[in-house]
Amino acid sequence: MSRGGIQGFESERLSQILAARRLSQAQLASLVGVSPATVSKWRSGNQAPERETLERLAGVVNVTPEWFTRAPSAKVSLPLFRSNASAHVAARAMLEARMEWAQDVALALSEFVDYPTLNLPIRQFKEPDEITPDEIELAASECRDLWRIGRTAVPDLALAIEGAGVVLIREETGISQIEGLSAWSDALGRPLVLLSADKDNGYRSRFDLAHELGHLILHRFIPRPTERDRHKQLEQQAHRFAGAFLLPAETFASEVRTPVTLDDLLLLKRRWGVSVAAIVMRLRALKILDEEAAQSLFKRRSARWGAKSEPGDGDRSPERPRLLRRTIDLLVEENVMPLDSIPRHIGLAAHDIEMLAGLSEGYFQGKPKVVQLARLRSAPSPDAPVATEGNVVPFRFTPKR
């Protein structure tokens, strides 16, 4: 139990804010004007800050003082990061904290609305060796069937995933090496996906999202690995799922002309919304190309365009989340909650909520007009088609009484 200071100070919140702001205990101590030993005692729960010190602490890290007295929600499942390098430890901790904050935002808003019903294929794999290429193809096809999107190019994957009940966040993280992460939230009863917005490439962002969808479906019950080879195996499976989902074998293969040329692949890139590099990998998985032919195309691609970019990369804007943003818009439009009271209700800084919910900068300082939404309606039946471009993601509005 804490000795002295504010009653109810949650030391876990301090650990969370240190990770989210990428601050060391010594740096925080200097900013607040206390000793590093004092911050260490706060963090261990052996001491709590006095009222005036808590206000300085809150001001330094840009949250409300009251936020430090809120019991943290149950932690999300441990995310599986694309890179397993130890050099990214601090970056991972920051992203995990942001994911927990996204969970806090979604939980606070769920007091007023019902999110779309979770609609993902269920797989109970306990070991990655259980997951065969055929199992991956089957899971990708089942996902498309559940969402009723046929076997054509998906117009907007972000919208489809949110319509299936996944909470999606896309924000600039400052960590370009980590394109995305995903985790399951017991508190929400649904998963979350956080995508990095640091690379403004709609093709790559779309594949990253499909990759995280693969992790959510295939690897939910598999412990996060520490061995490099096992980690690589899970990553390869998520990559294969992304290719199978975005480029379904039944229809995609029929559009491929042989011999395959880079110019032909650029046309397929624009049609399917998938990079040439990912298309080559899919053609290899479908055995339309053998290993030698695939490597030859990769070499020609690098020689012609370089290793990191392709023609037309700027033609497709990254798909953007809508669910949290439109939920906040709805609460304001329906006069359920005044604009400036939403950050206080959640407890986080307005800027952090704007980032996590995909709101425009300065949103909570007021805006001339709230975005008009379609008329609220009952949740769709299980047989209803998934939302497509131009439709509002359906959710039921249930004011708290």
In short:
The protein is mainly alpha-helical and 401 residues long. Helix content is 45%, strand content 5%.
Describe the structure.
This protein folds into three domains: 1-72, lambda repressor-like DNA-binding domains (434 Repressor (Amino-terminal Domain)); 117-315, no CATH class; 323-397, no CATH class. The protein is elongated, with a radius of gyration of 23 Å. It is mainly alpha-helical. Strands 2-4-3 form a three-stranded mixed β-sheet, sandwiched between helices. It has helices spanning 11-20, 25-32, 36-44, 51-61, 89-109, 133-147, 157-163, 202-218, 228-246, 249-252, 262-272, 276-285, 291-305, 323-333, 342-346, 350-357; strands at 113-114, 167-171, 180-185, 190-196, 396-397. Belongs to the short-chain fatty acyl-CoA assimilation regulator (ScfR) family. One of its GO terms (molecular function) is DNA binding. Residues 14-68 form the HTH cro/C1-type domain. InterPro entries: Cro/C1-type_HTH, IrrE_HExxH, Lambda_DNA-bd_dom_sf, Rad_response_metalloprotease.
